[in-house]
Amino acid sequence: MRAKGLREHLSEHYAGKTLPAATVARLTSLVSVPATASPVQRIRFPARPRRLAYGLAACVAALALGNAYFVVENRGLRSRVAELSHDLVSARGELTAQMNGHNFEPEPTSGVPDSPAKGGANLVAMRVCANWCQNCAVIQPMFQRLEQKYDGRSIRFVDLNISNDATRRQCSQTLGLDCGEWMIQQCDAAGTILLFDCEGHRLLASLSDADQLPRLEQVLDAALDKKNP
Amino acid sequence: MSDPAVDLDELVQRGYRFALTLTHDEARADDLVQDAWHKILRVDGPWTIGYLFTTIRNSFIDHCRRTKRVAFESFGNQHDPHGEECGALADDDDVFQISNGTLEAALCRLRPEERAALYLAAVEDYTAQQIADLFGSPRGTILSLIHRAKGKLRENLRVRTGTTA
């Protein structure tokens, strides 16, 4: 190894630090959007969604706009999340969401078809994760155990990586449009398993801790028994 | 709207590196540069490196104040006569044979302001006056800051590489 001066070391050190090309492309693409563009175009902001609420807002966006770039700013911007989501969903006239404290509360909507999740499954267990989420690593084996345990039953297991646009879109499509409405009901952070009832349009349970697993299984068993007595 | 002469890709990357010097954490630097980018978008430019650096730094300070994660110490208005006579990073006569990990660890022990000033001087080739304008501090303070940052970094590297002065 050649001995070098401090300046050279620092230059080399920082030269190797770069943002991913996709992030750079998204950021620079924002600059070319005219200021007079519609709000929907202007909010193509690809920040890192720290909180699940942001990821959920992104789901709504994906539902509403297909492949539009959308995720929200990163810190202390709950109201902005609500505003953006509201803009998005209102733009399509399909969903209306309001923010209440830490959660989104969906308003009754009209004209939205209540289609169950595709694939014939009435229940959907969704693991919401993100690349930067440490709790996700704890949740993952539990989710796999659940998947093995309920293999063949009327339940669909879905991974929603909120740090991955493609996965998010795919998940939204898999679940069906109106699932966005349930997803925005109650969620706090990445590293959560959510159990949705696609027929009742309800969030049955959420789990973010290993200790809550028996409770989730109870809810799951009860829901499956109810559907297939 | 952007100035077509500005290479936005390069602008983002340089902003990211500067954010990295402040946060010393890639994820937080990522957030910081995007946060700053959005702030500039709101006012529709200007897309210059100086403005981006200033916005990033202000966002970082705002964030620190909000979360109170990092205590910002005033580096005072100390004068370093040797630094005053030299350029921002002129006495770069020490040579080291170090790995990137060693440098990373040594940089970690510097304060955000010290890392940032050192980065601007060494990598971005900023003069002390330009850094002073960016930080809103007197030039002498910046020279002193860089001098002390270099001293600390040099000492850290010596300790880690086992070399003696």
Write the layout of secondary structure elements.
The complex is a heterodimer of chains A (229) and B (165).
Chain A (H helix, E strand, L loop, with lengths): L3 E2 H10 L5 H11 L7 H4 L9 H14 L12 H15 L4 E4 L2 E4 L16 E7 L5 H15 L5 E7 L3 H11 L3 H5 L8 E6 L4 E6 L5 H15 L2
Parallel strand pairs in A: 4-5
Antiparallel strand pairs in A: 2-3, 4-6, 6-7
Helix pairs in contact in A: 4-5, 4-7
Chain B lengths: L7 H16 L2 H18 L5 H19 L13 H5 L9 E2 L3 H9 L3 H11 L5 H8 L3 H23 L4
Helix pairs in contact in B: 1-2, 1-3, 1-6, 2-3, 5-8, 6-8, 7-8
What would a concise description of this structure say?
The complex is a heterodimer of chains A (229) and B (165). Chain A is α+β, with helices and mostly antiparallel strands.
- N-end to C-end Cα span of chain A: 71 Å
Overall shape of chain B: it is: globular
**Largest beta sheet: strand ordering of chain A:** 5-4-6-7
CATH class of the largest domain in chain B: Mainly Alpha
Mean pLDDT of chain B: 76
Looking at the structure, the CATH topology of the largest domain in chain B is Arc Repressor Mutant, subunit A
Structural class determined from secondary elements of chain B: mainly alpha
Number of helices of chain B: 8
Taking all Cα atoms into account, the compactness measure Rg of chain A is 20 Å
The ordered H/E elements of chain B are HHHHEHHHH
Find the structural class of chain A using helix and strand composition.
Answer: alpha+beta
> In percent, how much strand structure appears in the residues of chain A?
15-25%
**Oligomeric composition of the shown chains:** heterodimer
How much of the polypeptide of chain B forms β-strand, as a percent range?
A: under 5%
Question: Which fold name is given in CATH as the topology of the largest domain in chain A?
Answer: Glutaredoxin
